[in-house]
């Protein structure tokens, strides 16, 4: 009779194609058996009445370490783990130094090691005057590169992480096409947005709705179309982050039909919140692109149901609470970033099931598709024999209202505070380690067990 490290019994296990009641056995951090399991185990957990889902892969977070007190790998990874996340990819900006050369990457890796309770990976930055750093960063293990078509702001701007110009974008795409790594794009036309902002500020229009009006949908559409044109010319693989409008989705899908290697993500806040919520909640709901109207939100859901959106990622972008305040009431002055990394899966289960998604759809959007785009599938992103035992255990009967004390990020603000969720993540397992348990005193490992997942392009990668 086989002996396993862990057996989870009687859960509704969500695979890529089905959700079925079964047992799940784990040995050496990987899934060893599925079905009706007769073997013995050092640890047996009854998960009757619970959903066993693949751990969330959040490919868009800003943990802002080293160099700031905005978040950090310890608090940020705990928040993500409490939301069922087992692998995150950290963005290159808002830490100091930004990840635009191998030495900065090694500094960031050193910060994460021993602190992160879940696995982690990194994006590099495509910025002006640093094209010669792209290949060394690829060899060092970044999974791809991120560029902004508008001004990113933040502390990294003084250290070289700035908006990409068209010449750098074109040449960078040519290099990345040769390297075979994707380019992630923040697609907003910064010149248009800045001009509208200047006009609104001159007119004294400084409210939440004025900020949203300064970045209208066409600011996103134009940047998306420009990037697609350059991708077609260079052969660069593209991934658009935080797409907020159905028109952008349609343009990207048209490019896919032409044969471009392009994918897109949206974020839970564009699916769950609107500009009316922004006005009600205040600066805690400020982001770029801004929250849109109700019709846009519903049309995004339509695209999601039809399989036209590849991934959902949090864009967890935290900051100290004083950066979310303006003495003058000027919404242009407050930091634009939503701290929602802990809530991605619960938002998607709450809103998504109401909107007609199935559990397998949520798993695909939050785990399998991100894993494929990152090049870590099938080791990660799916529940099958041989894959890492990265699991989110969800109680579908545990309805709860999010309060600040439930949050594990450093600065406990979120637009979801006060929202009642229809289900709750109660356990998270990363490579067979229990890294989060909700009940009793919430527990995490005493030391970070997260491993660095590097690109297969790295000459010294631990390949996924």
Summarize the structure.
With 464 residues, this protein is of the alpha/beta class. The chain is built from 13 helices and 19 strands. The strands form four sheets. Strands 1, 2, 3, 4, 5, 15, 18 and 19 form an eight-stranded mixed sheet that branches. It has a six-stranded parallel sheet with strand order 9-10-11-12-13-14.
What does this structure look like?
By secondary structure, the protein is α/β, with parallel strands linked by helices. Helices cover 31% and strands 20% of the residues. The chain has helices at 73-82, 102-112, 134-140, 166-179, 190-202, 208-213, 217-234, 246-257, 268-272, 275-281, 294-305, 344-354, 359-374, and strands spanning 3-14, 19-27, 30-35, 40-46, 51-54, 56-61, 85-90, 119-122, 124-125, 145-148, 183-186, 238-240, 262-266, 311-312, 391-395, 400-401, 420-421, 424-430, 433-437. Strands 1, 2, 3, 4, 5, 15, 18 and 19 form an eight-stranded mixed beta sheet that branches. It has a six-stranded parallel beta sheet with strand order 9-10-11-12-13-14. A three-stranded parallel beta sheet has the order 6-7-8.
């Amino acid at each position: 009779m086989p002996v396993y490290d862990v057996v989870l019994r009687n859960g509704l296990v969500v695979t890529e194609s089905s959700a079925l009641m079964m047992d799940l056995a784990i040995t050496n951090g990987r899934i060893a058996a599925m079905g009706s399991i007769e073997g013995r185990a050092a640890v047996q957990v009854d998960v009757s009445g619970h959903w066993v889902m693949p751990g969330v892969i959040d490919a868009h977070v800003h943990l802002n370490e080293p160099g700031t007190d905005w978040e950090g790998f310890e608090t940020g990874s705990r928040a993500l783990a409490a939301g069922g996340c087992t692998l995150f990819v950290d963005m290159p900006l808002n830490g100091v130094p930004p990840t635009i050369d191998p030495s900065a990457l090694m500094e960031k890796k050193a910060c994460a090691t021993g602190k992160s309770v879940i696995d982690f990976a990194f994006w590099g930055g495509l910025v002006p005057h640093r094209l010669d750093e792209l290949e060394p960063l690829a060899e060092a293990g970044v999974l791809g590169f991120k560029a902004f078509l508008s001004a990113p702001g933040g502390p990294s701007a003084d250290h070289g992480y700035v908006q990409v110009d068209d010449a750098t974008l074109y040449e960078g795409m040519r290099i990345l096409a040769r390297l075979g790594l994707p380019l992630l794009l923040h697609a907003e036309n910064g010149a248009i947005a800045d001009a509208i902002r200047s006009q609104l500020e001159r007119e004294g229009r400084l409210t939440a709705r004025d900020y949203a009006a300064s970045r209208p949908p066409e600011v996103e559409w134009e940047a998306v179309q420009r990037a697609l044109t350059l991708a077609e010319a260079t052969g660069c693989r593209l991934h658009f982050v935080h797409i907020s409008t159905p028109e952008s989705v349609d343009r990207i899908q048209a490019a896919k039909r032409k044969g471009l290697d392009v994918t897109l993500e949206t974020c839970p806040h564009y699916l769950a919140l609107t500009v009316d919520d922004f006005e009600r909640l205040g600066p805690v709901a400020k982001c770029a692109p801004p929250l849109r109207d109700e019709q846009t939100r519903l049309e995004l859901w339509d695209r999601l149901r039809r399989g036209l959106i590849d991934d959902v990622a949090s864009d967890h972008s935290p900051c100290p609470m004083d950066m979310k305040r303006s003495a003058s009431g000027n919404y242009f002055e407050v930091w634009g970033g939503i701290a929602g990394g802990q809530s991605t899966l619960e938002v998607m289960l709450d809103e998504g099931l109401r909107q007609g998604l199935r559990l397998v759809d949520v798993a695909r959007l939050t785990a399998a598709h991100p894993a494929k785009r990152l090049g870590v599938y099938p080791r990660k992103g799916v529940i099958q024999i041989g894959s890492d035992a990265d699991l989110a255990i969800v109680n579908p009967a545990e309805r709860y209202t999010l309060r600040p004390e439930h949050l594990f990020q450093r600065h406990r603000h979120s637009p979801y505070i006060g929202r009642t969720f229809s289900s709750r993540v109660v356990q998270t397992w990363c490579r067979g380690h229990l890294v989060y348990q909700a009940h009793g005193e919430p527990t995490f490992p005493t030391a970070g067990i997260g491993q660095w997942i590097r690109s297969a392009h790295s000459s010294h990668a631990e390949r996924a």
